[in-house]
Amino acid sequence: MKNTTSAKKRSPGRPRSFDRQAALETAMKTFWAQGYETTSISDLSRAMGINAPAIYSAFGDKKQLFLEAMRLYLGDPQSQAEAIAGAASAREAAAMVLANAVRTFTGEDTPKGCLIGTGLATGSPAAADVRAEGAATRAALEALLTSRIERDKTGGLLPVDTDAGTLAALVSCTVQGFSTLARDGAPAARLQAIADFVLRGWPEIEGEGVDAEAVRRAGDS
Q: What's the pLDDT band for 16 if we cut at 50, 70, 90?
């Protein structure tokens, strides 16, 4: 049946007058630059170019908008899991993770540092559940790396006494350190030099050498 409602009156099914994906990307960058708790709905409204009621209608409250922005920032978790599992070695998986952090944290068109690491660094008890989501993403990365390291131990690529969990945590801590350094203005070359240094200290079977530059190139591919 033809809708005879006046065009001036917005009906519940009327399409939004803004690009939802573009608005979400803007919200992501705003949270990334300012942090979760210090970013207000007014800040988001100005940045996104839409009013507060439209934000609530399209995304829910600020927490839900942040969580959706965080998922956009992280990308497809399945792709990350497949990339780490499919790397030729755990060392190359670590190189890939570190190189990706360098690129992401020092991008020309995005805020410096890590959305999760810096956006949720401080907060009130009311934001505890949001911080828990951020912590869960770091734990998931460590679990993927730990599993990949254990595979190398089983396959004879790493010493059997390698502490897989601690080695994975070292990579995760390095990534978080990159976020702070990037916020302080450190360039990509500085962060990559640190990544290369970490990789040169990777455990190895006696008699094997580590070509850090080759590992770095693998991480860039």
A: low
The first and second tokens of residue 214, run together, are 């080759």
Q: How many CA atoms lie within 13 A of 4 on its CB side?
A: 1
Question: In the CATH scheme, what is the code of domain 20-72?
Answer: 1.10.10.60
- Nearest Cα neighbor of 70 from 29, 124, 127, 18 is 29
pLDDT tens string 188-216 = 999 999 999 999 999 998 755 444 444 44
CATH class of 76-220: mainly alpha
What are the residue ranges spanned by the domains of the chain?
Answer: 20-72, 76-220
What CA dihedral angle connects 141, 79, 20 and 38, to 10 degrees?
Answer: 10
Using CA atoms, how far residue 67 sits from 25, 27, 31, 52, 131, in Å, is 12, 11, 10, 17, 10
Closest by CA position to 31, among listed 104, 110, 108, 109: 110
Instruction: Classify residue 176 as exposed, middle or buried by CB count within 10 Å of its CB (0-12, 13-18, 19+).
Output: middle
Is residue 15 very low, low, confident or very high in pLDDT (cuts 50, 70, 90)?
very low
